[in-house]
Amino acid sequence: MEKLSRGLITLLNAAAGLLFAAAIAINFVNVVGRYVFHAPLFWAEEVTTLLVIWSVCLMSYRLTANGEHLVTDILRPFLPASLQRALLLAVTAFGVAATGFVAYYAYVVVALVARLQQLTTVAELPKEVANGSILACFALALAGSLVRLLQMADTRRPLPGAEPAEVDDAILATEGAK
Amino acid sequence: MSIPLVLSILPPVLLIAGLPIYLVLLVSAGAAILGFMSVPPTLIPQIMFGGLDKFALLSVPFFIFAGEIMARGGVSRRIVACILSLCGRFKAARPITTIAASEFFGAVSGSSPATVAAMGKLMYPSLREGGYGEKFSLGLLTSAGGIASVMPPSILMILYAASAEQSVTELFAAGVIPALLLGFATLVYILWHARKVKPVPEARRSAVETVALVLGALPALGTPLVILGGIYSGVFSPTESAGIAGVYGILVARFLYREISWCEIWEVVVSSARLTAQILLVVAASGVFSWVLTTSGIPQALVQSVGGLADSPWVVLIAINLFLLVVGCLIDPVSAIVLLTPMLVPLASHLGIDLVHFGVIMAVNLSIGMFTPPFGLNIFTSHALFNVKISTICAGLVPFIVLQVITLFVISFIPWLSLVGAQFVR
Amino acid sequence: ADFTMKLATATVNDVQTEAIKRFAKRVETRSNGRIKTELYPAAQLGSNTRMIEGLQLGSIEFYTGPAAYLVGVDARYQIMDMPGVFTDARHAQRTFSDPEFRKALLDIGTSKGLVGLGTYIYGNTAFATRFEGAKVADFKGRKLRVLASRVERKGVELMGATAVPVDFSEVVTALQQGTIDGLKSSPPAFTSLKLINIVKNVTATEDGVMGELMLASKQWWDTLPADLQKMLREEAAALEPELYDFVLDDQAKAYKLWEEQGGKVFHLPAQERAALLKDMREAASAMLRENKATGEMLDLTLRVAERVK
Ligand code: NA
Ligand code: NA
């Protein structure tokens, strides 16, 4: 499972990165096309927005599985280790339920727009391409939180993300590597 | 139980428990929907998508990318070295460089968290090298980005103008002096703070060295020129400029300085995508929270009670400012301005407050909201960027928040500061 | 109240806001409080696209907005924006209010979760530009912002200009900085955006009208008793002529205000305009005829428009 999860993250990283890079490329081509050649890509704004949204949604697996989401970790540092594990388990289990709930209703929305054969206003793409992003986001978050829950239930493992790593060095390293 | 109770109790409880912030917002909104509203839960994914489906929002990922490319490709290092070689002998050179660079970048980008992301990567290591503390550096960087919403172009002002039927040009012009004032207030604090710390003295450089540093940094210093020049000559829009900045960054770092490989550029793409996801998921979820808040009638009731306080414009203005500061703590500025402009503008015009001045007040207020806990995109951006505790960032922010709130009241009660700019284009 | 009705629209201080205000008032009065109304202007409940989805999913009960945004739901809605068909706004009104056309248009959405209640217009089409657009040749090589529908793009290309889609949030900045040279909309929109501070010229091409729809959520509609359904249909129909009067008055005021504030209003030379409108109509017709359903809708519209001339 560990291997599978890491493989999935590598794959999704690559996919999200490609979409992100494509958005930057289209934005550039559109500006050049409009200013230099008077030939803008009429679909550029809609498609770049969709590319970034999909990139965001594909990242949701690793954010959830690795515990990289933005959180305000106020209570946990004050608890003893055993309670910390219990709290993390409870929060993660709660996350499974919440993401599963949203994933189901995201599916209902996608099913509806698919049944009605609707198109996006500008690029006239099937609307499933647009609304499907949120379904993907929560399906991946559900999978990610299940994996995290299973990993946490294994008491031999250390607690994930207990202390934020010292970043000063990390940032200085990226700067000073040259 | 009622909606106001759910929306005021659930979020703090879940936040403290350590649920991811985007889920805190979704679960609170979901509880209100399931318990008290006759709308289907399909609303949640649908409005989440709507929260992301905004072209103007793209300036956030694009500037994150541009900022990272410049940080990794030696662009930002050269800018910092150049400015420091020119004014490094001055007291507090590094924080002053930070605030100046943040204002400049914020002016261009129009996006507060994007400014934090770009300037953070650029200036944080430099500040720490210069001997400034973690909290001070974090507070400075996290708050300095706020100026982006006041200095033109500003997404908040565009949204306000559309809603309040005011001229965007006038609002932009009106924002300049207040934005400079916010920067000046921060500057005063920086100088005062620098008296207490012992900044590491900058190395003395010969004239030749300085010229070499400046020449070497010219392409890097060209970045803001490319952005500003492109926007003001109409080559591209403010949002597009963010993407162009990234491409320009690649050109300079890869082909001119040759300090970054394609492999590293790819790494920056992936890490920018991750950072973008962390921030935009919260934006999307806050859209759902705002939707529920809007239809619950809570903000409307609050505005009414604010309006009923007194007939004096001054008292009501204080009340509105306090109210907006609280709102800024809880929801994101774009949602807030969309939500509150139609409700507050009648109140303001009833009291005879100039609506351009009022737009500036709202923009300044909500720009402060970007870095007031518990909800502030700038805070989250810093948190994601530097991987430090949110409590550490908040502690560092306190003096900057106090300072900017004082400036806010000055801006509120001296309409001239805003209107003198607007007069130029009227 | 037995029912709550959220009425939503994307703008403020214009005919759309007037539509939700007046409709809400009529509904509250006629239903004797059985329907409680809540107003959400200024896109408080989301963009046009989101509000239309909201109707389909049942989270919003009533929405009014441009037909142009419904093209993704069904391509037949763009018929209202057909260029070169209506001699003036009142002719468009007669066509849209004709029982045969009205039924055909309002029933389009029934199978897609949208109950059509009524139609009106936002105004005649016009351009606000940085340059003086006195004749068609003045538009040659210019970059003009239009809604991204194919018909709109084609129309601008026929004038020799480049159609540039710009997100609404950036229109004003783009116009100010010269990223675009002008935008196509309607005079009331120009004054409410205070474009006079940025550009001085309006060209009243009036090649068509900007069609508007009043829609209810089918999910909600099906929960209503028959008498309330009947009442809503009647009140929407009764509101229509009021909205035309409001918008045409608003438009006349907008032109007047534009000139009072130092702006110029241009009209294309009659012959040039006639030729342009003919080209636009032919191009749009050709596009609509590519598809059977839109082709049939076009035939119906042309027939009715001819009958009520
Ligand atoms: Na700005
Ligand atoms: Na805040």
UniProtKB/TrEMBL annotation, chain A:
One of its GO terms (cellular component) is plasma membrane. Residues 24-152 form the Tripartite ATP-independent periplasmic transporters DctQ component domain. It holds the Pfam family DctQ. The keyword Transmembrane applies. One of its GO terms (biological process) is C4-dicarboxylate transport. Keywords: Cell inner membrane, Cell membrane, Membrane, Transmembrane, Transmembrane helix, Transport. The chain crosses the membrane at residues 7-29, 41-65, 86-109, 129-150. It is found in: Cell inner membrane. It comes from the Bacteria. GO terms for molecular function: transmembrane transporter activity. Its main location: membrane. The keyword Cytoplasm does not apply. It is a multi-pass membrane protein. Part of the tripartite ATP-independent periplasmic (TRAP) transport system. The complex comprises the extracytoplasmic solute receptor protein and the two transmembrane proteins. Belongs to the TRAP transporter small permease family. This is TRAP transporter small permease protein.
TrEMBL record, chain B:
One of its GO terms (cellular component) is plasma membrane. GO terms for molecular function: transmembrane transporter activity. Keywords: Cell inner membrane, Cell membrane, Membrane, Transmembrane, Transmembrane helix, Transport. It is found in: Cell inner membrane. The keyword Nucleotide-binding does not apply. The chain crosses the membrane at residues 12-37, 43-67, 138-160, 172-192, 213-235, 241-257, 277-294, 314-339, 351-370, 390-417. InterPro entries: DctM, TRAP_DctM. The complex comprises the extracytoplasmic solute receptor protein and the two transmembrane proteins. Belongs to the TRAP transporter large permease family. This is TRAP transporter large permease protein.
